[in-house]
Amino acid sequence: MLLHTVNKSFERNSLDACLRLAKAGSTVLLIEDGVYAAVQGTCLEGKLKQAMDTGINLCVLAPDLLARGFATDKVIAGINAVDYAGFVQLAADHSSVQSWL
Amino acid sequence: MSEEMMDDEEGVIKKFMYVNRKAPYGSIYALESLEVVLIGAAFDQDVSLAFIDDGVYQLMKGQRTSGIGMKDFSPTYRALEMYDVEKLYVDQDSLAARNLTADDLIVPVEVLSSAEMADLMEDQDVVLSF
Amino acid sequence: MKFGIQINEGPYQHQASDTAYQFTKAALENGHKVYRVFFYHDAVNNATRLAVPPQDDRNITKNWQALAKEYNLDMVVCIAAAQRRGLLDENEAKRQGKDASNIAEGFRISGLGQLIEAGIQSDRLVVFGD
Predict the structure, then answer these.
(1) Residue ranges of domains in chain C
(2) What is the mean pLDDT of the segment spanning C117-123?
(3) What's the Rg (C-alpha) of chain B?
(4) In b/e form, how buried is each residue of B25-36, taking b as 16+ CB within 10 angstroms?
(5) Total domain count for chain B?
(6) Is the pLDDT assigned to residue C100 strictly greater than 90?
(7) How far is CA B42 from CA B46, B87, C64, in A?
(8) What is the spatial distance between Cα B88 and Cα B104, in angstroms, rounded to a whole number?
(9) Range of the domain at B120
(10) I want to staple A30 with a disulfide (CB 3.0 to 4.6 A). Which of A52, A60, B5, B121 is the partner?
(11) CA geometry: angle B16, B21, B27, nearest 5 deg
(12) Beta carbons of B122 and A2 less than 8 Å apart
């Protein structure tokens, strides 16, 4: 299964496009400005929960989250926080990586 | 170093997909992505191009760039066939959202539903995004 | 596992080069191999030796150089993208009749084929951009 990376939360509908085309069993990793989407209570929360319900694994890059002023306890339940080594491991564990640029 | 590896893996054909999500002229991604496709064609890999979101605008018919002082590179998409790059896939939802159909595009393409595009992407070995 | 890295954005303007660097560093530190880092689009500016970022900021070019030295990393700058943006090595400066070159040590300028080759030779190609 694919690892998708998304580096925008509200801009350029990258997240929407990714979630529409990501298959159940694949993983979506939120990085850079994509990490805002992982924070509880935004207008994107419903979308992410729905994605998880359909079997998409969601992860967020913790160093990017912390840099932007959000602790990992502010993340929507079910989204896994990873560090760069975790990012590398996710890339290794999936068949290929698609960056939603 | 690479010579030895080349010998090891000679004849390996991977599935390469170029994902285009950006419109032309506003930024250079579309043009430089096309440059990779042309060079990459020499490597005899299994190549697909996907056009999603604003990427579908790359294929618009009737681009006239003289007024903005930039080169119209859209004819190059028609030349891809000569490079044996023949798998051009366009996302149906992206076309519809932009009030476009395949008839508006400069080359014949295969229009895919979300599910078909998702399957195609999942099937790739290398996904190059620009 | 063997990774290939493609970077599409210039340093400082976007986070892509930083993320790519952190990813590459983490991969190498965790026992993986990195077949090649390929600098495309504005990312060619990662390789200028003339940038002088403020002392209290990170120096992305130096970070790459240090990583390359420690792990014998192959860092390739796309020649077509580099020529457009005024990044030259000594040979290219001579060939184009320019009075200076500006590529930093540890980077080399080569063709787009090196990106395709990285896609073929690596187990995973990871693209960083905006």
Answers:
(1) 2-128
(2) 98
(3) 16
(4) beebbbbbbbbb
(5) 1
(6) yes
(7) 11, 16, 30
(8) 15
(9) 14-129
(10) A60
(11) 110
(12) yes
Q: For residue range A13-54, what is the model confidence (pLDDT) as tens digits?
A: 999 999 999 999 999 999 999 999 999 999 999 999 999 999
3-state secondary structure (DSSP) of residue C38: strand
Q: Is A66 at the interface with chain B, CB within 8 A?
A: no
Residues of C in contact with B14 (CB under 8 A): 119-120
Q: Do C112 and B39 touch (CB under 8 A)?
A: yes
Give the pLDDT mean for A70-81.
97
C113 reaches B (C-beta below 8 A) = yes
Digit-coded pLDDT (tens) for B78-110:
999 999 999 999 999 999 999 999 999 999 999
Whether residue C129 lies within 8 A of chain B, CB to CB, comes out as: yes
CATH number at A52 reads 3.40.1260.10
- CATH code of the domain covering residue B20: 3.40.1260.10
pLDDT tens digit at each of 130 positions of chain B: 444 445 445 678 999 999 999 999 999 999 999 999 999 999 999 999 999 999 999 999 999 999 999 999 999 999 999 999 999 999 999 999 999 999 999 999 999 999 999 999 999 999 999 9
Q: Which two tokens stand for residue C105?
A: 């040590």
pLDDT at position B10, please? 63
Instruction: Pick one of 3.40.1260.10, 3.90.1150.200, 3.40.50.800, 1.20.120.1460 as the CATH number of C2-128.
Output: 3.40.1260.10
Q: Do A1 and B21 touch (CB under 8 A)?
A: no
pLDDT for residue B2: 45
Any catalytic annotation for residue C78? Answer: yes
CB contact B57 to A (< 8 Å)? no
Residue carrying structure tokens 């993208």? C81
B5: in domain: no
